[in-house]
């Protein structure tokens, strides 16, 4: 039986603390921010969340709740999945042994979420899926208290994706129990039912491999026509890619140029790709795309960014922006909007714009 989970109130965070480092946590925040009708309230909500101005958080099927400022009851509702949708989701979990192992390791595989969406099971919320309520007099949608609650919940999601499943209607025990009741398909009568395997008194699956074991380069002897140093780099790269594939379940497809930049960035190779290497270190393939190309974002996204930029200068005159496509030049800084929905900072280095730091969804953060 699914029950609520309670989480202690978050204390004030250190300066520079970020929300949501996991991809599913960022998707949660984006759904809330894209629904917002007041970017000033979002800014206040971020400040409330970081200053620890909410009480303990309760997560239960279909809702998250907390008390703000010791007097306001704040709730955000999420639609629960139907029983039929849960059955389709369990089909996707059971289709690949690595899925349940990843969830138990507190990871949410991309391919599991994509397969669920293909089966008409929306795990991650989209625009309009989050319904905030608050007893405060503010008419914002969401108000600063509901926004703060969503921002803090992104930290809970980072730590445990089962929090998302609980909001959708079922928690970790429900999921494991449902999988235990299923029998694995067998080719011969000697097969072992899944329920017996899961209930054997041992973990349902072996522990995932130790991804963070230090890489040991192979012992390579010099030979005519063999570049031993290059082979060592390629071996280290292959090991790193394999580790990432195990961790994420898939790898992005890279062009020859992108892969060359990746190798230079990850293995400190001098291939004459200075700015490209810096862009990769800050943003991977997305950062490289922002460095090398331009595109015209939808007006709605640019208007949202403009509102965020102006809200970050409340009480002061916002800086003058020279805008061209996805590039905004603001004095000595240029902000470039990526196709991943984040702003990348650049600064002048002689006659070139160079990547100057990691990206942010809120452009005003990069000017603070």
- Give the helices and strands as they follow along the chain: EHHEEEHHHEHHHHHHHHEEEEE
Mean pLDDT: 84
Distance between the termini: 47 Å
Largest sheet: 5 strands, antiparallel
Helicity level = 40-55%
Low-confidence stretches: 184-189
In percent, how much strand structure appears in the residues? 5-15%
Number of helices: 13
Count of distinct structural domains: 2
Record field, number of beta strands = 10
Class inferred from helices and paired strands? alpha+beta
Radius of gyration: 24 Å
Oligomer: single chain
Strand order of the largest sheet: 1-2-3-4-5
Net shape? flat
Helix/strand layout:
Elements: E1 5-7, H1 23-35, H2 39-50, E2 57-60, E3 63-68, E4 72-78, H3 83-94, H4 97-104, H5 110-118, E5 130-134, H6 144-159, H7 162-167, H8 172-181, H9 194-198, H10 228-248, H11 256-267, H12 274-292, H13 299-311, E6 322-324, E7 327-330, E8 333-337, E9 343-349, E10 352-355
Helix pairs in contact: 1-6, 2-6, 11-12
Descriptive keywords:
alpha+beta; flat; metal-binding; Putative Zn finger protein; zinc ion binding; zinc-finger; Znf_SWIM
Quick overview of this protein structure:
The protein is an alpha+beta fold and 368 residues long. The protein contains 13 helices and ten strands.
Please describe what this structure looks like:
Keywords: Metal-binding, Zinc, Zinc-finger. This is Putative Zn finger protein. Pfam families: SWIM. Residues 119-154 form the SWIM-type domain. InterPro entries: Znf_SWIM. With 368 residues, this protein is of the alpha+beta class. The chain folds into two domains: 5-183, no CATH class; 250-366, no CATH class. The chain is built from 13 helices and ten strands. The chain has helices spanning 23-35, 39-50, 83-94, 97-104, 110-118, 144-159, 162-167, 172-181, 194-198, 228-248, 256-267, 274-292, 299-311; strands at residues 5-7, 57-60, 63-68, 72-78, 130-134, 322-324, 327-330, 333-337, 343-349, 352-355. A five-stranded antiparallel β-sheet has the order 1-2-3-4-5. Strands 6-7-8-9-10 form a five-stranded antiparallel β-sheet. A hairpin with a 3-residue loop joins strand 3 (63-68) and strand 4 (72-78). The longest helix is centred in the middle third of the chain and has 21 residues, at 228-248. It is flat, with a radius of gyration of 24 Å. Residues 184-189 have low confidence and may be disordered.
